[in-house]
Specification:
The structure is a homotetramer of 290-residue chains. By secondary structure, chain A is an alpha/beta fold. In chain A, 48% of the residues lie in helices and 11% in strands.
């Protein structure tokens, strides 16, 4: 889930309510807040806590809420996990520390420390393009022996890595592999993954739920058909901007055009200006999103 | 300056006092805290504030104190800069936001926002190996037009970039170029830089001050002689560990062997264990550091 | 196809005959020589020509032969394509020049020059991990307008790129997308690709043909079953060595253990020594390859 | 030295004569042909041999000629080295094989094979941005034990690596460290290097010779003055184009404007068109080059 903002360090509260309801109405089986699309690293701790509290209250147990606690400071990660646990979140999600690149032995030790202090089950979040470091296959294999770890969200886009994750996951019947770039949802679910955490589900949740189910049911024709819509969204909406920020800007812009929430973005980014907004509008109309 | 710690989220206060005095006794012309070697991104905000307060009090105006405010969250950067200003720091230092890579136009806008809210002069900190993004030559050129920016600390290790920085700096008589990897101190000062921010100055500050002066005075023989000592330290002390963390671990290990401060490190790292510590000890003895 | 060698600059001729027959007996629909697994860039031009001649004679029209002409020197690429055409090859295959990285406009101009001189249809070979440069989506789109280009072999392993290739290919009914890492054969054929160029088909061609057909026929259960075998081969055989050369060394080692051909490798590589060979033997026995 | 061409696979013979004389008149102490600026990998073998023959004849012993034999095919490297030896060249120069990245043990073995077959002393050429692989410090250290290797040309631009090369070179009194990017000539000679291989010496050889001597003589004021001219050339002439090819295009363009030789470039590149040529002309006039 993106984080609806209406200004610097200020949540768009009515937008947040509409957004949570919109996503849940789409039939999703869980909500992930404070991830990359949630701009978590760009938000103050105060705002992160406020978001956790509000979302948990709004969701009110309808689906599990997973909370990103990724941080470069161990203490802040644990602090946020405690807030999440108090508010009734179901799991904490962490990428590797992302300023200093850790060696894998350092990373394993870091996870050991984290697991000792965490009040929630932990989902690993593999995001090497932004953190510089992958959870290596050996580290994930080690993690399957830790009862406190429940799976991996893989946003590497690397399907060779994914296939090895599937093999590694055989060691744990309760392990989840959730894939990040939504363009890979179909194939990853078909080939052994357990679901997706997909930005497009902010504005069109039903599409991703349907695609997930088609893949899980091996309904290939339906899967291919839905997959084409997912690919078109990625191509048309997420590439309007030039920089890495283009995906989040695109999602927030669509949500703003739909009247769901504001598209304000935290520094270092800025919402799309008129030119890009008009291009998103045209594409979103073509795709039947608005 | 490294950050002396004695445990998780706990400063080594007596060690900090000894360290500040040791460095200042070496004749340095300023102190930079909460940079990369200071493990800033790994420290809680509480501890960062405590460190700023204690260091400013300890230094007590003897030299200017520069405070790293680099953060992925704009609001937290500004908060820390305010603490620094209240405590009498001389400047704030910021690298680019380091989770999301910004495009250069995004970065310029980010700096504009920051300058509008900062109570201190700003030094840019170019550290692309850890932040993924350089301040481009065009962005630095733009920055020379901002009165609130006073220079660049360049830790890229890229001397082609450095030579362009020297050219760009001609636009501002009060601009500083400070170079990061201490192995490049001699040549950068000789070729137009204004100084160094060098990790080795934690344990042997006089050496780096002397090298700086030899280079500034074009005393080539003395410069080459001192430079050999600096290269030897980098080769022998900073490459004992295998990971990126090796430099900081090496510095803290020497300081611990010197009895100056504890070598505890914040997650995701861990101080050297006995094997590496013994190797550092042997090398430090050879080099006459202990 | 790998290139069977028995010494420096010397083909293993009887091994080559056995290998071609073995692969064709597996039901493949074409043969690609002088690609990456064929060690093409490491072979002298004399040997490359000899290989083209021998393979075309051995295949004798049973399946189309595609010949890699990738080179840093334009003139040598064209020379080799002419030999291939004379010997009856069906297509030339080229990656981008791989010493100097070209900008995309430079690459388009390069392809224009090549197409003007080529006596054979051209398949583009996207291999950015070794050539440093991808054929951008725009360049591939441009290529679909060139009658002389017949498709893309994509070895990037990047399924986001692949999905865009599928979209781009809609412009040409006779366009082929062939995918490289065999671990991605199943999903790429299922999702719009036209086949694979897979190193494992050197020793177990039938497996890859069967997997291709299961995917093409949307026979998901069979596809998943065969795919597991393909993943196991990649995991067990291709990761015995530590370096990039491990895949080719693994394939050649299995072929040698099967008695098909020698496993000599051209510089800068060297066949597996006893330790690695024994590990490959154990794994190949487990997998029923030998 | 760049390679003067007047068309595809055709040397500009009168231009070559003028260029060799122009460079030698500038007082250089050697000539390096078939390096990166020489577009060696883009040239046919026939043309490379022709160039070696012509240059050796033209130079006629006035200075040593070093010949780049870098190739992905071992056999072709050795073949070219033999031609070079027959024509009286002084040394062969090789980068790592650049299609397949070698591990360092593979690279050492490759060099062992090469040294066994080479009829000339060998200079290592470190060019990781184009070859993907550095000669590691350990490999260079190993090389200092090989009598057939006489030094390293380092084009990495990495002065930390350079300082370690200087340390390693202490093992051999007859070892040379020659630095590539001309912007680093001054500092590297001052700090322990033995010279430069600098593209700008194609058009203004005296400047680089003078700078070398000022640095060698520790004449800092003169060195700084000349260095400014070198930096200005790099900034103004080598950044007119957008792609990696910009440096070579810039050098050839200046030589063409000087009437020395044609600026034709081998594929995948193309000489500057009118717009860029006019920008180079303007800058070259400003700099007093034409």
């Amino acid at each position: 889930m993106i984080t609806p903002l209406r200004g610097r360090d200020e949540l768009d509260v009515p937008g947040l309510e509409r957004l949570v309801d919109h996503i849940l109405a789409g039939g999703v089986s869980g909500l992930f807040i404070l991830g990359t699309s949630g701009e978590a690293p760009s938000l103050s701790y105060r705002l992160r806590r406020e978001l956790v509290e509000r979302v948990c209250r709004l969701v009110n147990g309808r689906v599990p809420v997973m909370v990103g606690i990724t941080d470069t400071a161990f203490v802040e990660s644990v602090n946020l996990a405690r807030v999440a646990a108090e508010q009734g979140a179901a799991a904490a999600v962490t990428a590797t520390p992302y300023y200093f690149p850790s060696g894998q032995p350092e990373l394993v030790e870091h996870l050991q420390h984290l697991l000792a202090d965490l009040p929630l089950p932990l989902l690993l979040y593999n995001m090497p393009s932004l953190t510089k470091v992958s959870f290596s296959r050996e580290t994930v294999r080690w993690a399957t022996d830790q009862p406190g770890v429940i799976g991996v969200k893989d946003s590497s886009g690397d399907m060779l890595y994914f296939h090895d994750l599937v093999e590694i996951a055989r060691a744990r019947s309760d392990w989840s592999i959730l894939v990040g770039p939504e363009q890979l949802l179909a194939e990853s679910v078909l080939l052994g993954g357990h679901g997706g955490i997909n930005g497009g589900a902010n504005f069109k949740p039903r599409l991703y739920v349907d695609l997930y189910e088609a893949a899980k049911d091996h309904d290939v024709d339906r899967m291919l058909d839905l997959n084409q819509q997912v690919q078109a969204i990625a191509r048309d909406i997420y590439q309007v901007g030039r920089h890495t920020s283009a995906v989040i800007k695109g999602i927030k812009c669509v949500l703003s055009l739909m009247g769901i929430c504001d598209d304000y973005m935290a520094e270092p980014f800025h919402r799309f200006r008129a030119t890009e907004r008009n291009r998103v509008r045209a594409k979103a109309e073509e795709l039947g999103l608005i």
